[in-house]
From TrEMBL:
Residues 35-297 form the Xylose isomerase-like TIM barrel domain. GO terms for molecular function: isomerase activity. It comes from Streptomyces rubrogriseus. It holds the Pfam family AP_endonuc_2. InterPro entries: IolE/XylAMocC-like (IPR050312), Xyl_isomerase-like_sf (IPR036237), Xyl_isomerase-like_TIM-brl (IPR013022). The lineage of its organism: Bacteria, Bacillati, Actinomycetota, Actinomycetes, Kitasatosporales. This is Sugar phosphate isomerase/epimerase. The keyword Metal-binding does not apply. Keywords: Isomerase. It comes from the Bacteria.
Length: 300
C-alpha cells in the first residue's frame, strides 16, 4: 500500500465535466454535476465559471451541504499586465466571485492570466511575450490583487500558469515567482498545463515549494501534445483533440507529484481537472470514478 498522503485534500471541478462557461447547451446541468461528483467519491469542488452553479450563497450552501460537498476555491481571469487601467474591471469580477467563495467557507481564489491567443479561433490577440514594462504591471498588479483580496475577503490568491497565457513555461513561471512577494502571491500549480508548456512539476515543487499554494491535477497525452506543438494549435482545439487525458495514461506521473507535495508538510488542495469541453454528457462520470480510484491507489 502507498503511504497515506494525509496533507493532500482531493477534489474535482466542473471542468472535469466539460464545463467552461456559465451557460452553454453543450454542458451538463449543474445539478447533474453536483450529483455525479458526489457519486464519484469527491468531497471538495471548485465553483467553476461564475454563474454555472447557483450564485445565491444560501441556495448553493444548501445544494452542496446536502450532498456532503465543500467548496475549495473560486476562479477569475484577468489581464493585469495591461496596466492600472485593467484594475477596475478586474476588481468588479473579483467582487462577485470572491464574495461567493468567501460565503462558501473557501479560502482560495484561483487567478488565471488572460489568453494571448483566442482559444477557439486561434486569433493572435497580443504578443506571446511581455515587455519588461508589462512584466512590471503584471507582478505589481498581482501583488495588489493579493493584498486587496486578503484584506477585503480573507482569501489567498493562487496564480494559475496556463497554456496560451503569459505565465506558462518554466522560464515565465520562475520569472513571475522571483518578482512577486510570497506573502501576497502564490501559485496554483496545474500539472497538466505545466507539462503542456514543457515544465517539470516535481522540480517546481522541490525548488519553489514555499510558493505552491494549491494544485490542479491533470495529465497530458504526449503524442497528441507533439502534434499540437508541431501544428501551432491553440488550447481550445487541442482539448478537443484530447490533449488532456485520463490519468494515469499521460504525463506527468501524478504519484511523484503528490509525494513531493506531501513532503512540503503543509495542507494542500489537489483538485482534479481534466479539460474535456465539449463532451458527451455520459462521458465524465465513469472517468471521474476511475480517477478517484487511481488517486486512492497513490495514497490520496
Amino acid at each position: 500500500m502507498p503511504s497515506a498522503l494525509d496533507r493532500i485534500r482531493v477534489g474535482s471541478a466542473p471542468d472535469s465535466w466539460g464545463v467552461w462557461f456559465p451557460d452553454d447547451p453543450r454542458q451538463v446541468p449543474w445539478e447533474r454535476f453536483l450529483d455525479e461528483v458526489t457519486e464519484a467519491g469527491y468531497d471538495w469542488i471548485e465553483l467553476g465559471p461564475y454563474g454555472y452553479l447557483p450564485t445565491d450563497p444560501a441556495r448553493l450552501t444548501d445544494e452542496v451541504t446536502r450532498r456532503g460537498l465543500k467548496v475549495s476555491a473560486g476562479t477569475i481571469f484577468c489581464g493585469l499586465h495591461r496596466g492600472p487601467a485593467e484594475w477596475d474591471a478586474t476588481w468588479e469580477q473579483v467582487g462577485r466571485v470572491a464574495a461567493l467563495t468567501q460565503a462558501m467557507g473557501a479560502k482560495h481564489l484561483v487567478v488565471i492570466p488572460s489568453f494571448w491567443r483566442d482559444d477557439k479561433t486561434a486569433e493572435i490577440l497580443e504578443p506571446p511575450e511581455l515587455t519588461g514594462e508589462q512584466w512590471g504591471h503584471l507582478t505589481r498588479g498581482m501583488e495588489r490583487l493579493g493584498r486587496e483580496v486578503r484584506d477585503t475577503y480573507g482569501l489567498d490568491i493562487v496564480v494559475h500558469p496556463h497554456a496560451d497565457t503569459h505565465i506558462d513555461t518554466e522560464e515565465h513561471v520562475e520569472r513571475f515567482l522571483d518578482a512577486t512577494d510570497s506573502d501576497l502571491v502564490n501559485l496554483c500549480l496545474d500539472t497538466g498545463h505545466y507539462a503542456y508548456c514543457g515544465g517539470d512539476s516535481v522540480k517546481l515543487i522541490e525548488t519553489y515549494g514555499e510558493r505552491i499554494g494549491y494544485l490542479h491535477l491533470k495529465q497530458v497525452d504526449p503524442d497528441i501534445l507533439a502534434g499540437v506543438r508541431e501544428g501551432g494549435v491553440p488550447f481550445g482545439p487541442a482539448v478537443q483533440r484530447g490533449v488532456m487525458c485520463e490519468p494515469p495514461g499521460g504525463v506527468p506521473e501524478l504519484g511523484p507529484v503528490l509525494t513531493a507535495a506531501q513532503e512540503l508538510g503543509v495542507d494542500l488542495f489537489a483538485i482534479v481537472e481534466q479539460d474535456m469541453y465539449p463532451c458527451e454528457p455520459d462521458k465524465p462520470l465513469p472517468i471521474a470514478v476511475r480517477t478517484r480510484k487511481f488517486l486512492r491507489s497513490c495514497g490520496a
